[in-house]
Design brief:
single chain, alpha+beta, four-stranded antiparallel beta sheet, 8 helices, binds zinc ion
Length: 286
Amino acid sequence: MPELPEVEALAGYLRQRAVGRRVDRLEVAAINALKTYEPAPAAAAGRTVTDARRHGKFLDLVLDDDLHLVVHLARAGWLHYRESFPSALPLRPGKGPIAVRVRLDDGSGFDLTEAGTQKKLAAYLVTDPAAVPGVAKLGPDALAADLPTFAERVRSRRGQVKGVLTDQAVLAGVGNAYSDEILHAAKLSPFALTDRLTDEQVADLHAATRRVLGDAVSRSLGQKAAELKSEKRSGLTVHARTGLPCPACGDTVREVSFADSSLQYCPTCQTGGKPLADRRLSRIIR
Ligand SMILES: [Zn+2]
């Protein structure tokens, strides 16, 4: 799932490549992906791309400063920039991976695609990004928040730090992958309770958040558009590395179920050497 660094890189690429170009056509192939009906997609035609922004994990293509194509890529969505399209014919609604196509006046443009059968990609054409419910409820940006803001937000929600850090209403932009990385960098158990964190632990968590997200943004921005792939993240230490050695200490990275997914962590770095109990698994064994 694309998170803050990947969406930031996509916005950065669109700022370089698409700003100043006029939209020829906004085509919607996956009818269910477009969550708004007014303004209609035809309203985008003839407008100029004036900016590309990020709100948490949402991408926002700004047209003439007052029309926004806001996109949430969900788990399997991505943006593919095309220097040209094979056909000038409009996309036909169907079952293919392309959900939305934006054609620009120089013949280039991009496709918003979604792999798999679970279609969760969501696009909104709005005059104000705050009209998108997911954007309206976002907390402060995880990368931009200063320590007092970060501490106030994390402590505003009592719960396991893994869940609190990925709650978009607490802080915007962090998902399953980068929360694993941040908690490893901060040497915190993913199950630590936010109301029991010391001031020092919160400060370490804040520093780790800035460092991990900042490094990932730098790596993503350094890639060419064709190499921008959400599923091929580089530089991860624990996420999606179950069974491999922790780069910091050499212990074996472990996995435990969490919410509707799983998380990865290093016992030596994060939980005093003790593996976390997998509640889903122990229930099955019992
Ligand atoms: Zn370790």
